[in-house]
TrEMBL record:
Short name of any one Pfam family annotated for the protein: BPD_transp_2
Transmembrane regions listed in the UniProt entry: 16-38, 44-62, 74-92, 98-120, 127-147, 167-189, 209-236, 256-280, 292-312
Organism: Acidiphilium rubrum
Residue span(s) of domain ABC transporter: 356-596
Database matches in InterPro entries: AAA+_ATPase, ABC_AA/LPS_Transport, ABC_transp_permease, ABC_transporter-like_ATP-bd, LivM-like, P-loop_NTPase
Name of the protein in question: Branched-chain amino acid transport system permease protein
């Protein structure tokens, strides 16, 4: 059975109305700006608006998705040089202009995809992304220097013929560009796809274990951000008719990072405003205080980071909210649960391939052999408990079953398919669900958003819409309802208790509709009643839906009540594999647990 969790939908429409009002107000300001401002201010702001748009792209990358890039300057320069080079060497026909925009967009997005592919390779730390983008800036600057008369080398290109537009028109064009980029960015980050970006920032590993190809998502996002930065760069070259290698410099790249940090990460509007204001003020200061203006900007940056580590945006937003009687977002209690009768977890045949088949599996860290010659199978309709003393290798075994890159030797097959060297997201796509030992959740998301992310592979998220319902399988809904999560759908996950997070992770794993479940101590931290309930749900999943569950538990009483079979692991080897009565009555198990009297008590 699949159930539908309905969420308050009026929130989205009121948000869209507010966005429309803000955009109209911003466009109004852009319209009247040249009438109120002096020529110098208009000149600076035309440039600042373009920088503001680039800051928005970096905020989506860094603030929302956790990708700290210093390379937006390089993409900005690529767009600028595409314009500069075409206008210098070819001319300014409409075809030339289209060619320049096209080349800028294509080169920037392809290079973005390439750098993303290199930077987001698995096993690579987040720091590598920042280093890779710094290197990108250096490489682009060196290429521009090496271009000789073609790129103008260190002097760049200037004085090329460009669009003959008045300052008010440029002001309207670049201002509207900023408003459009910010509005589209807002729609994106407030859509289900935006929630997916935040889930990657919060806990990429968890997202991957839901079968989400986070590397590909980040590459696509990085390439799109590169393209928009290039478009802004093209606008810059077209307006100023000057391009220089400094545009690609990591100094400019770092300035964009500072704008975002000052404006407030993951606020979108904050970085846009900060970029415009700082560039505008800097232009004035650099004229009147040529030797110390950079120092002043640095001091302000440090002061803001110390006083408001989250930047100016969130503080300003709080101030505005406290002054204006804005309607608050509908509370979680407004969410309704309804059930649609539709079979989702299909009953599995007992005659197919084994749900889990592990053959001669080994895992060693250097000379330390943690797992040795592990072989067993588990069928659909079996609840196999994996027990053993601390350090026996239970978690390592689950890791090797759910991630093809983990094991040192042997083979693992899920539902008849060998996982080979598949990474967790592709193992998950074979029908595998994994719950981690400690609650592994998305702290900054709400309970409802977390459940939606767990379903993202099955119900792909929209790039601009936020769904007002979540389809959940019956088992996930049962966990949500029985553990009180249903009343906390709009609450942030970080506000949940340890037990609440445990229950949420289990509900998320079940929401992804796995056919093979790997559960590492799923009831740790739950109350006795909740444990009973979870036990009942697991038994039901196995009995009615013929799922296969491999469960690690230290509470052997719990194990005895729900298991159809028990595997005992000791010092990285399987020492016993049998039904509950055989294992409980085993002298060998008593000996293994000799140091743990409580466990023996529970087994007997
Ligand atoms: N990345 C690693 N590098 C080195 N040794 C590791 C690594 N991961 C696990 N080990 C070692 O492997 C052994 C088994 O660890 P594992 O966590 O699988 O045991 P466990 O049976 O799950 O224990 P527990 O019940 O306490 O969770 C331990 O001795 C541990 O120190």
């Amino acid at each position: 059975m699949r159930s539908t969790v309905s969420l308050p939908s009026e929130t989205r429409s009121s948000e869209l109305i507010r966005l429309g009002c803000v955009c109209l107000a911003a466009l109004g300001l852009v319209g009247i700006g040249p009438l109120c401002l002096g020529e110098y201010s208009v000149d600076i702001l035309i440039r600042s608006f373009l920088f503001g748009a680039v800051a928005v792209t970096l905020d989506i990358l860094w603030g929302y998705t956790g990708i700290l890039s210093f390379g937006q300057s390089a993409f900005f320069a690529i767009g600028a040089y595409a314009g500069g080079l075409i206008f210098t060497h070819l001319g300014l026909t409409p075809l030339d202009a289209i060619l320049a925009v096209g080349i800028g967009l294509i080169v920037a997005s392809l290079l973005g995809a390439l750098v993303g592919w290199l930077a987001f390779g698995y096993g690579v730390s987040d720091l590598y992304v920042s280093v890779a983008t710094l290197v990108l800036c250096v490489v682009v600057v060196r290429i521009l220097y090496a271009g000789g008369t073609f790129t103008g080398s260190s002097s760049g290109l200037s004085g090329f013929t460009t669009f003959d537009l008045s300052m008010p028109v440029w002001f309207a064009l670049t201002g509207s560009f900023l408003v459009i980029v910010a509005a589209l960015g807002w729609l994106l980050v407030h859509s289900d796809a935006g929630t997916l970006f935040v889930s990657i920032r919060e806990n990429e590993q968890r997202a991957r274990y839901f079968g989400l190809a986070t590397g590909r998502i980040k590459i696509a996002l990085f390439a799109a951000a590169a393209a928009i930065a290039a478009l802004a760069g093209f606008g810059y070259a077209s307006y100023t008719d000057v391009v220089a290698p400094d545009l690609a410099n990591f100094k400019f790249g770092t300035a964009i990072v500072i704008w975002v940090a000052l404006g407030g990460r993951a606020t979108l509007l904050g970085p846009a405003i900060a970029a415009v204001l700082i560039d505008f003020i800097s232009a004035y200061l650099s004229g009147s205080l040529p030797f110390i203006w950079e120092l002043l900007v640095g001091v302000v940056f440090i002061a803001v980071i110390v006083v408001m580590p989250q930047g100016l945006g969130p503080g300003l937003a709080r101030g505005v909210r406290s002054m204006l009687p804005l309607r608050s977002v509908a509370p979680s209690s407004a969410a309704q649960l309804s059930i649609a009768s539709q079979p989702v977890i299909t009953a599995q045949s007992d005659h197919g391939p084994s749900a889990i088949a592990v053959t001669a599996l080994s895992r060693h860290y250097g000379s330390l052999r943690v797992l040795d010659d592990i072989s067993f199978t588990a069928q659909a309709g079996e609840l196999v408990s994996l027990v053993g003393p601390n350090g026996a290798g239970k978690t390592t075994l689950i890791r090797c079953i759910s991630d093809g890159t983990e094991r040192s030797g042997g083979d693992v097959a899920i539902l008849g398919c060998s996982i080979g060297r598949l990474t967790p997201e592709y193992c998950a796509r074979l029908g595998l669900g994994r719950k981690f030992q400690t609650p592994t959740v998305f702290e900054a998301l709400t309970v409802a958003q977390s459940l939606r992310i767990a379903r993202a592979r099955i119900d792909p998220p929209s790039l601009w819409r936020r769904a007002d319902t979540i389809n959940l399988p019956q088992a996930a809904l049962q966990v949500v309802q029985a553990t009180g999560l249903a009343e906390q759908l709009a609450n942030p996950v970080r506000s949940l208790s340890h037990g609440g997070k445990q229950a949420l992770e289990l509900a998320m794993v079940l929401a992804a509709e796995p056919r093979v479940l790997l559960l590492d101590e799923p009831t740790a931290g739950l109350t006795k009643a909740e444990r009973r309930l979870i036990g009942g749900i697991l038994v039901d999943l196995v009995a009615r839906h013929r799922l296969c569950i491999l469960l690690i538990e230290h509470d052997l009483d719990f194990v005895r009540q729900i298991s159809s079979r028990i595997i005992v692991l000791h010092q990285g080897r399987i020492v016993l594999d049998g039904d509950v009565a055989t294992v409980v009555g085993s002298e060998l198990v008593r000996t293994i647990y000799a140091g743990e009297p409580q466990a023996i008590g529970a087994m007997t």
